[in-house]
Specification:
- The complex is a heterotrimer.
- By secondary structure, chain B is α+β, with helices and mostly antiparallel strands.
- Helix content of chain B is 19%, strand content 35%.
- Chain B has one helix spanning 8-42; strands at residues 66-74, 81-84, 88-91, 96-104, 111-120, 128-133, 139-141, 146-155, 165-174.
- Chain B is flat, with a radius of gyration of 22 Å.
- Classes of the chains: A mainly alpha, B alpha+beta, C alpha+beta.
- At the A-B interface, helix 6, helix 7 and helix 8 of A face helix 1 and strand 9 of B.
Chain lengths: 526, 186, 390
């Protein structure tokens, strides 16, 4: 299909003005990878400084700028846009739509990102340096005590929020209005479901972040006192507003990853996903619970004991739907016919490491123990198990899984598996010891540490370098595949893959499903 | 169901934009005021009311003595000498008590200060009533001048029995240069 | 002060003996019976000597073991599949894709386990919040980047002092070997009596800090403008070490906490000493010092109060340069003014309340004569006193 239609325009104009979901998806993916490298570079600087005690490479003030930018770039530049890119490529192909519902807005939501990150990175060269109050930028460190770059930072956050909201509106509008006839909600692939719920979360909480930074802006420039006690405000209010955004944000990052592995594990188990309905309900419950647990990030601010108890119980509840998901994935593998190509390896890596991250999350939810864990490396280890082994591993799995479909060429399997094993070993070497130093009492966000923590920090740094270098192998493998990979033409690519996107020719044509596909009513979700 | 457009896509998009706008407004219209209400109700951060207490207590509980402890902190860049005249007072619930804080501006220029009260334990907030307090208003002092800042308070008769000590802390801020550093912004 | 130096010295000697007698490995385990603080390559939370710390540790271990058992079960099933249900072994996929019974079971059972976890968690939390009458109240104030402790005494003057990082810049910059308590040592520790319920009232002067001593299981945010409470009752004498836990700017990693828990008698003596020390300072204030005396004292004061921002050689950093600056080489009056009252709206704090008049006189004198400023003039404590009084 689509052969009567003209192909992509030539030259730079194709990319600047494109409204094609595949082009925009590609741009999102490359952009997020560039940001992943940038944020990774910041991480390497952090780990190099922490390789041994004492100050060797950077000044403490610069170190704080590195931790701040690392967090911001990875969250807003690497992980979120990468999943938006994936959504762009896959959602229309998965629900049998010709394109996204709002193609022009799709183009804008991407193209406002690169200049914004350029501006954010340029704050490094401004007087007073880049923002240095951490990616959570608590007031008053980020307001009264911030350098002049805070204004640019606030502007960047506004634009990033705008981009995310536009992207989410597009995804929701697409899923709600563009499904092929017969593609009912409960037949949608789980990736589409998780993204639909994620998009609703984004529309609900990105404006809250915008409100939060707007209050900062007003405090800094217009003499209000939202976050300053002197004028009747309260710095703790900042934390409540921030985490009201921030906790759903965590699920915004991880839910699409759940969707990805829910596609891949069944494919390589050659068995349908176990408990599809409960997966959908579990995703929705996690999203709902994410709105009532925010203050578990703030157990030490001195809340009334009733507040602590409420947020502790609510947070513990999240373990139930999350557990359901893990059990479903494991049961999907149970009595399947398993093979271990790179996407499956990364998905199993995700499953194991995300579960560990989930357990430490449960430990962190227990308020009295959290008094000891809070703001230590235990927390750093926890959220890297969830963010890196969760989101980034699943993203790697997704690229290996769908890349052959996108470009009609097969990646080098040996290199892919090597990438997985180096990543897996590097990641665990980097982050597992951080549990130990955290429990032993090492606070996070410090450029220098007591001698007792030396060995584990060295291990951690070496692991981080290994993990970082393995991404170069990944980049090489992807480019080599696109340029000169072994051609594949089987529409299915993987024998166990199910779903509408695998009914299309390989490589996927520039325009797909211009006439809606027929959905077999007996055929359940993919 | 409200429809913004006959085109279903435009309709969905318009509704979502409306949700986003409402959520932005939610921060200012709901979250901030709600937080302040909850602070007053639950004594979060030990924040106390910015207005004078006008009710009358049913009597004085002579059988019970509660320690009221005073603490003062200068915020960064606030050069005033500032502190309580008495560090601890033993008082009966229901009785009206008075004390003063002492302040002196050592700089040669006139300055304006704002004291922010905070009570610990937070549970005691609802039972500590200030009938008169220098923290209700900004306090100006000429260069080199000193002042006695009055405080008048009542400990509620219903103060839970397990609270024996109430700590009242004041942090003093320099608000000379702020445009509208008024407590009324709350 | 005097007492602490002696204990520290004794600890050192004892440790050296251990080291010689038992070898380095044993030293790590046994010497730490004397001094608390993180152990080398410690992998788990330390229960610490307090009741609350022990309860939190027990709770932590209960949750940890529950998670471990569940994890082993889940991973066991998964690896069984990975090993036995491989395509390469000829496994044929089954076709089941849901089971209401199983799905209800693995929703309900975790829920019940969570209730089991919530019970000890709740009682431990209530224990942490137990605010029985404390016998000693200490106001803890976080500053960028040091702690101030103020003992709230019912009679007599409050005792208050600042507690700064004691690790010299040369160790941080790797020009000298690092000491045993690198970054976990202060010039003046908090001293509290053993077996006494101590209440900490925690606040901050500038940004949010967090006062954390892992082995006492106390972590509470210090929020500017508001006070928080925390309690401890330590049964065992010893030195406990912690750090600021909330990012508070440039030197967040360099504001340690040291708590010296001593017997009630020693505490009483220490408090008396501190009060006498304060009186002695008052006396010193009336004295006149020589330039050498002022320079010697000034160098020490500079190292703990000024160096972080103005640099080891007065070259500046966060703060302006002192070497050759118009303030340090101009009139004494404005120089004193900045030292005592700070520069509002900048990072230059008012040190008038942080340094006593003797130290202030010494450090101003030092700044005017060190780093090639060579002004040759002196500031005496009485000058500082007069300046403060206007």
């Amino acid at each position: 299909m689509g052969d009567h239609h003209h192909g992509p325009a030539k030259g730079l104009g194709r990319w600047l003005f494109t409204t094609n979901h595949k082009d925009i998806g590609t741009m999102y993916l490359w952009f997020s990878f560039a940001m992943f490298i940038l944020g990774g570079t910041f991480a390497m600087i952090i780990r190099a400084e922490l390789f041994q005690p004492g100050l060797q490479l950077v000044e403490p003030a610069f170190f704080n700028q590195m931790t701040t930018l690392h967090g911001l770039v990875m969250v807003f530049g690497a992980i979120m846009p990468s999943f938006v890119g994936l959504a762009n490529w896959l959602i229309p192909m998965m629900i049998g739509a010709p394109d996204m519902a709002l193609p022009r807005m799709n183009n804008w939501s991407f193209w406002i990102l690169p200049p914004t990150f350029l501006l954010l990175a340029s704050t490094l060269f401004m007087e007073g340096g880049a923002p240095a109050a951490g990616w959570t930028f608590y007031a008053p460190l980020s307001t009264t005590y911030a350098g002049p770059s805070v204004t640019y930072f606030i502007f960047c956050i506004h634009v990033l929020g705008l981009s995310s909201i536009m992207g989410s509106i597009n995804i929701i509008a697409t899923v709600m209005n563009m499904r092929a006839p017969g593609m009912t909600y409960m037949k949608m692939p789980l990736f589409v479901w998780t993204w639909l719920i994620t998009a609703f979360l984004l529309v609900a909480v990105m404006p809250v972040l915008a409100g939060c930074v707007t209050m900062m802006l007003m405090d800094v420039h217009f003499g209000t006192s939202f976050f300053s006690a002197a004028g009747g405000g309260d710095p703790v209010l900042f934390q409540h507003v921030f985490w009201f955004f921030g906790h759903p944000e965590v699920y915004i990052i991880i839910l699409p990853a759940f969707g990805v592995v829910s596609q891949i594990i069944p494919a390589f188990s050659r068995k349908p996903l176990f408990g599809y309905d409960s997966m959908v309900y579990a995703t929705a419950s996690i999203a709902f619970l994410s709105f009532i647990v925010w203050a578990h990030h703030m157990y030490t601010v001195g809340m009334p004991v009733a507040g602590e108890l409420f947020f502790m119980y609510a947070t513990m509840l999240i373990a139930v739907p999350t557990g359901v998901k893990v059990f479903n994935w494991v049961t999907t593998m149970w009595r399947g016919s398993l093979s271990f190509e790179t996407p499956m390896l990364f998905s199993i890596g995700f499953l194991v490491l995300f579960t560990i991250g989930g357990f430490t999350g449960l430990m962190l939810s227990i308020a009295p123990s959290d008094f000891q864990y809070h703001d230590t490396y235990f927390v750093v280890a926890h959220f890297h198990y969830v963010m890196v082994a969760g989101a980034v591993f699943s993203m790697s799995a997704a690229i290996y899984f769908w890349l052959p479909k996108w470009c009609g060429r097969m990646y080098n399997e040996t290199m892919g598996k090597t990438h997985f094993w180096i990543s897996f070993v590097g990641f665990n070497l980097a982050f597992f010891p951080q549990h130990f130093v955290g429990l032993a009492g090492m606070p996070r966000r410090i450029p220098d540490y007591a001698l007792q923590f030396t060995d584990f920090n060295m291990m951690s740094s070496i692991g981080a370098f290994i993990y970082g270098l393995s991404q170069i192998l990944f980049l090489y493998n992807v480019i080599a595949t696109i340029v000169a990979g072994k051609p594949v033409s089987d529409p299915k690519v993987w024998d166990g893959a199910e779903g509408l996107e695998w009914t299309l020719p390989t490589p996927a044509p520039y325009h797909t499903f211009e006439t809606p596909p027929k959905i077999d009513p007996a055929h359940a979700h993919s | 169901m409200i429809r913004f457009s006959d085109n279903p896509t435009t309709d969905t998009a318009a509704k979502l934009v409306a949700v986003a706008v409402l959520m932005f407004a939610f921060v200012f219209v709901v979250m901030v005021p709600l937080y302040n209400v909850l602070c007053d109700a639950l004594g979060i951060n030990g924040k106390t009311s910015g207005e004078a207490y006008t009710s009358v207590q049913a009597g004085v509980d002579e059988s019970r003595l509660v320690s009221v402890q005073f603490v003062a902190t200068n915020n960064e860049g606030m050069p005033w000498e500032f502190g309580p005249s008495t560090t601890v007072m033993k008082v009966h619930p229901g009785a009206v008590n008075e004390t003063v804080f002492l302040a002196r501006n050592p700089l040669p220029k006139a300055m304006i200060a704002q004291a922010i009260p905070s009570i610990s334990p937070a549970r005691a907030v609802a039972y500590f009533h200030k009938t008169e307090c220098f923290c209700f208003n900004q306090q100006p002092l000429d260069g080199g001048a000193a002042a006695e800042l009055p405080l008048q308070y009542i400990v509620d008769l219903d103060l839970p029995a397990d609270i024996h000590t109430i700590t009242l802390s004041y942090t003093i801020f320099d608000v000379t240069d702020t445009i509208s550093g008024s407590v009324a912004t709350r | 002060m005097y007492y602490n130096m002696e204990t520290r010295e004794m600890c050192f000697k004892a440790k050296r003996l251990f080291k010689l007698a038992l070898g380095p490995v044993l030293m790590l385990t046994s010497a730490l019976a004397l001094a608390y603080g993180p152990k080398v390559n410690q992998v788990n939370m330390a229960p610490g000597p307090t009741d609350v710390g022990e309860r939190i540790y027990d709770l932590h271990m209960i949750i940890f073991w529950i998670c471990t058992v569940i994890g082993l079960g889940v991973f066991g099933v998964m690896f069984y599949s990975i090993i036995y249900h491989r395509k390469s072994k000829g496994a044929v996929p089954a076709h089941f894709q849901e089971s209401t019974k199983v799905e209800i079971a693995w929703t309900v059972v975790p829920f019940l386990i969570l209730i089991g976890m919530a019970v000890p968690a709740t009682s431990t939390l209530l224990e942490v919040y137990n605010n029985d009458e404390a016998e000693l109240d200490i106001l803890v104030t976080g500053y960028q980047w040091k702690w101030k402790y103020e003992y709230l005494t019912e009679n007599g003057e409050n005792v208050s002092f600042f507690s700064n990082l004691r690790t010299p810049q040369s160790e941080i910059n790797n020009t000298q070997p690092k000491g045993e308590h690198y970054l976990l040592e202060v010039d003046e520790p908090l001293v509290i009596p053993a077996n006494t319920k101590v209440r900490f009232l925690i606040t901050a002067n500038d940004v949010i800090h967090s006062w954390w001593v892992p082995e006492l299981a106390v972590k509470r945010d210090a929020i500017p403008g508001f006070i928080n409470e925390a309690w401890t009752k330590v049964p065992t004498e010893g030195i406990y070490r912690g750090q600021c836990a909330e990012l508070c700017g440039k030197d967040h990693g360099f504001m340690p906490i040291v708590v010296n828990v001593v017997s009630s008698e020693e505490y009483g003596q220490w408090l008396g000493d501190k009060q006498r020390e304060a009186a002695a300072i008052k006396e010193l204030m009336a004295q006149t010092f020589t330039l050498d005396q002022l320079m010697e004292r000034g160098e020490e004061v500079y190292a703990r109060a000024c160096l972080a921002c103005h640099g080891a050689n007065g070259e500046g950093g966060v703060g302006k340069a002192i070497a050759g600056s118009p303030v340090s080489t101009g009139d004494v009056g404005p120089h004193l003014e900045i030292g005592i009252n700070g520069v509002p709206g900048t990072a230059m704090q008012a040190f008038g309340g942080q340094l006593n008049d003797v130290d202030m006189a010494a450090v101003i004198t030092y700044q005017r004569n060190a780093f090639g400023n060579n002004m040759g003039d002196m500031v005496q404590p009485i000058d500082v006193y007069n300046h403060k009084k206007g």
